[in-house]
Specification:
This protein is of the alpha+beta class and 237 residues long. The chain folds into 2 domains: 1-66; 114-234, Distorted Sandwich (Glucose Permease (Domain IIA)). Helices cover 27% and strands 29% of the residues. It has 3 helices and 12 strands. The strands form 2 sheets. Strands 1, 4, 5, 6, 7, 8, 9, 10, 11 and 12 form a 10-stranded antiparallel beta sheet that branches. A two-stranded antiparallel ribbon has the order 2-3. A hairpin with a 4-residue loop joins strand 7 and strand 8. The chain starts with a helix and ends with a helix. Mean pLDDT is 78; it is low at 52-67 and 92-101.
Length: 237
């Protein structure tokens, strides 16, 4: 009986040992399974994250997860880009401003040489009076009956007869300046008339105080009633 009891105890011990080994193997397997599953899940998650950050080249499959394309605000192209000069609208200047910057146009009243210049300080010889005297104008040679033209735009402020200068037409072309044309034979304008540069004022005749000089017209320029040089101010030559 003792033998049978020892035999059962030996078989039970053997069975218990085998059971314990099986449990250990199962535990090891379970732990291994869990470890492998966790690593697979982590790898999969990393792959998903990496795929979101990939920037692929248009030419190959290489990518750089740390480089992103910058956003640029492109400027709007000018409406005149690519257009020819004739297609670009012309913007007219302010007419009032243009007029301020315009200089008056001047021209010689007749075609001829200046035979006597302006002098308000030094004396010049007078063939008519056979003496030396001031000459507050300029003399331009021309044949009698030559058309005398206005040297600039302006208004005829007076038409008068002078004992020394003959028939005289005075034209005002600014608030300060008046031009006197002397020695007319005939007149084409009257007082108050507007004239343009080149308007024929009349024809040349005789200047009593300069009658012994060769035929010419006499011109005087006044700035606020002060005689000044027509050559210097108007640029006549």
């Amino acid at each position: 009986m003792d033998y049978e009891e020892d035999k059962r105890k030996g078989e039970m011990s053997k069975t218990s040992f085998i059971f314990i080994i099986v449990l250990c193997l199962l535990a090891i397997g379970a732990v291994s399974y869990l470890a492998i599953s966790g690593m697979s899940a982590k790898v999969k998650d990393d792959d998903n994250t990496s795929s979101k950050n990939k920037t692929y080249s248009s030419n190959d499959s290489s990518y750089n997860s740390s480089i992103t394309e910058p956003d640029f605000d492109m400027p709007e192209p000018s409406s005149s880009v690519g257009k020819t000069e004739s297609e670009i609208p012309y913007e007219a200047e302010d007419s009032s401003e243009s007029k301020k910057n315009e200089s008056p146009n001047f021209m010689m009243p007749v075609d001829g040489n200046i035979i006597k210049g302006f002098s308000d300080s030094s004396l010049q010889y007078s063939a008519t009076y056979s003496d030396m005297r001031l000459h507050t104008g300029i003399d331009i040679a021309c044949k009698t009956g030559t058309d005398i033209k206005s040297a600039t735009d302006g208004t005829v402020v007076s038409v008068e007869e002078s004992a020394t200068l003959g028939r005289v037409i005075s034209v005002q072309y600014s608030d300060e300046f008046i031009i006197k044309y002397c020695g007319f034979e005939s007149l084409n304008v009257k007082e108050g008339e507007e004239v343009k540069c080149g308007t024929v004022l009349g024809t040349s005749g005789t200047i009593p105080s300069e009658a012994n000089d060769q035929p010419h017209i006499h011109i005087e320029l006044y700035n606020n009633n002060q005689a000044v040089s027509p050559i210097e101010v108007l640029g006549l030559n």
